């Protein structure tokens, strides 16, 4: 009997995660520990530092679950196949919870549904009242394309130095560049279409940097503007009628989606949510889209994206590079917006405070709050928030348009 | 389709984002102008109606001397301030001698409104 008990216990030990980690520690077991440590750091950032906790927490916990040996929470081999198409038959027959949830990412379902919810919570009045702020939203997309060029430029270095991981395909470079849009759902949408194997690294980088907007942006904003420019008080915005607010989502959808059909899922759903809010005739579903539906999708999206981060795809030089390039994308995006803001300041004879340009990187409403805070450092009675909300929401439209362009050209 | 060179992707991509948003600026500016002119017409019509109504003479109050009111301050504001002071003083034991705008700084009403809008963020 004692022998039977010993056999059962040793079998349980042999099949345990501890045996998988410590039994083959030097031969890959250590990778599990590193990934668990990274997920714990991300959990700390989400819980204690409040870095985008709504998404970072499920992402980090998904990462933790995906890196527990023998957990088999997700089967990425069902999705990344030799044919290039996911094996949906196996997903449905053999897949588990995370496989089924990940289908929403793979099929590009979750990001547009999140955009629907964002639309119900976004007030475009400041943009409608000052349409020129759209230009700042466009200028801040410079980071996306600059980083794309930078990532492609690294290929030559990789070849010259003979480093394998210093190489990105155009699709990977486009997915990395979109981090500069400072828009998590857009980054996930583009990456799921162009480079699904980088999804985990790009999602983690995008959401971490979005949370770090108050740290990354102010030094760039101060470096590129003068004290006098930062103290500019802008004129009050004109009130916008309800008819204008209702027409806005219809006009944007028609214009953007006719020119760029690839941007339709994101822009169309954003505008549908906004139309539902502004008309006021579908209050029940507006509340559902902005609360329950968005919360459910947020859980599904965060958890399933976190599950895609296994040691083999995450623990490599490319992930480090992606994190560095993501920072460059953010910095260039901020600089692009501020520089264009300076140009507009000069063109209008000092009527526009260039600080609102940095809000063009999206990250609503964090980036607008940063403009307000930096502006108030120079002039405490200055309220830039409402003016910065214009470029901020314009950035959401701009990054969705840029996403459509990247998918169209590189997809 | 073959993927274009890096320079082409950057120029076409960024150029297209800028062009689409410039087009939106143009359309929204036109829309804004249209609605502004509609609002102006509405205000002009409302002013005409008020002017007609004002033709009926109103007997002036006998005792109280009229306070000095700085040009540009609407009558409604004077009445609202007078009523507020009356409410605070608890009756008729006060005289409103003059009403002038604060010379420097932002309008306190505007600051209060801005604060109420920006506080949720």
**Strand percentage of chain B, roughly?**
under 5%
**Number of H- or I-type helical stretches of chain A:** 24
Share of helical residues of chain B = 55-70%
Largest sheet of chain A: none
| Count of domains of chain A | 2
The counted number of beta strands of chain A is 0
Please give a structural write-up:
The complex is a heterodimer of chains A (411) and B (121). In chain A, 73% of the residues lie in helices and 0% in strands. Chain A is mainly α and 411 residues long. Chain A folds into two domains: 78-107, no CATH class; 110-410, no CATH class. Chain A starts with a helix and ends with a helix. A two-stranded parallel sheet of chain B has the order 1-2. Chain B has three helices and two strands; from the N terminus they run αβαβα. With 121 residues, chain B is mostly helical. In chain B, strand 1, helix 2 and strand 2 form a beta-alpha-beta unit. Chain B has two domains: 1-55; 64-103, no CATH class. At the A-B interface, helix 9, helix 10, helix 11, helix 17 and helix 23 of A face helix 1 and helix 3 of B.
What keywords describe this structure?
heterodimer, A: 411 residues, mainly alpha, 73% helix, globular, B: 121 residues, 2 domains, 3 helices, 2 strands
Summarize the structure.
The complex is a heterodimer of chains A (411) and B (121). Chain A is an all-alpha fold and 411 residues long. Chain A has helices at residues 2-14, 17-23, 25-47, 53-66, 76-79, 88-94, 97-106, 110-121, 125-129, 133-139, 142-161, 170-177, 184-194, 199-211, 213-224, 227-230, 242-259, 264-279, 283-290, 292-307, 311-314, 317-347, 366-378, 385-410.
């Amino acid at each position: 009997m004692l022998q039977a008990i010993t056999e059962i216990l040793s079998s349980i030990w042999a099949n345990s995660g501890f045996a998988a980690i410590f039994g083959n520690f030097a031969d890959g077991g250590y990778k599990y520990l590193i990934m668990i440590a990274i997920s714990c750091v991300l959990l700390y950032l989400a819980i204690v530092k409040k870095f985008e906790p709504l998404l970072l927490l499920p992402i980090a916990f998904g990462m933790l679950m995906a890196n527990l040996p023998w957990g088999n929470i997700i089967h990425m081999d069902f999705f990344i196949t030799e044919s290039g198409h996911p094996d949906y038959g196996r997903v449905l027959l053999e897949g588990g919870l995370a496989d089924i949830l990940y289908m929403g990412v793979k099929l590009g379902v979750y990001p547009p549904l999140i955009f629907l919810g964002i639309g119900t919570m976004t007030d475009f009045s400041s943009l409608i009242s000052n349409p020129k702020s759209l230009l700042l939203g466009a200028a801040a997309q410079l980071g996306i394309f600059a980083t794309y060029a930078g990532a492609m430029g690294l290929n030559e270095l990789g070849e010259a130095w003979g480093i394998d991981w210093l190489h990105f395909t155009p699709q990977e470079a486009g997915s990395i560049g979109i981090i500069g849009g400072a828009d998590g759902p857009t980054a996930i949408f583009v990456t799921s279409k162009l480079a699904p194997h980088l999804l985990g690294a790009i999602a983690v980088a995008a959401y971490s940097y979005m949370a770090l907007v108050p740290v990354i942006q102010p030094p760039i904003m101060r470096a590129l503007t003068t004290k006098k420019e930062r103290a500019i008080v802008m004129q009050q915005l004109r009130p916008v009628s309800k008819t204008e607010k209702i027409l806005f989502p219809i006009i944007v959808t028609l214009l953007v989606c006719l020119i760029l059909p690839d941007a339709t899922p994101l822009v169309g759903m954003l505008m549908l949510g906004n139309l539902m809010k502004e008309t006021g005739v579908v209050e029940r579903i507006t509340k559902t889209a902005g609360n329950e539906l968005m919360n459910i999708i947020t859980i599904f999206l965060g958890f399933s994206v976190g599950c895609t981060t296994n040691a083999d795809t995450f623990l490599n030089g490319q992930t480090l590079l992606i994190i560095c390039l993501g920072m460059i994308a953010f910095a260039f995006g901020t600089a692009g917006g501020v520089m264009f803001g300076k140009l507009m300041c000069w063109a209008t004879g000092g009527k526009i405070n260039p600080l609102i340009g940095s809000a063009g990187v999206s990250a609503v409403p964090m980036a607008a709050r940063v403009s307000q805070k930096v502006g108030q450092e120079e002039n405490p009675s200055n309220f830039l928030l409402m003016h910065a909300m214009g470029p901020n929401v314009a950035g959401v439209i701009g990054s969705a348009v840029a996403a459509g362009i990247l998918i169209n050209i590189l997809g | 389709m073959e993927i274009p060179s890096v320079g082409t992707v950057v120029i076409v991509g960024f150029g297209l984002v800028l062009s689409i948003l410039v087009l939106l600026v143009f359309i929204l500016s036109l829309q804004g102008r249209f609605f502004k002119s509609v609002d102006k017409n509405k205000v002009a019509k409302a002013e005409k109606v008020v002017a007609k109504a004002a033709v009926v003479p109103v007997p002036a109050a006998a005792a109280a001397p009229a306070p000095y009111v700085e040009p540009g301050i609407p009558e409604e504001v004077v009445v609202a301030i007078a009523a507020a002071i009356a409410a605070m003083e608890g009756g008729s034991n006060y005289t409103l001698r003059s009403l002038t705008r604060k010379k420097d700084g932002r309008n306190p009403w505007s600051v209060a409104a801005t604060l109420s809008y920006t506080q949720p963020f």
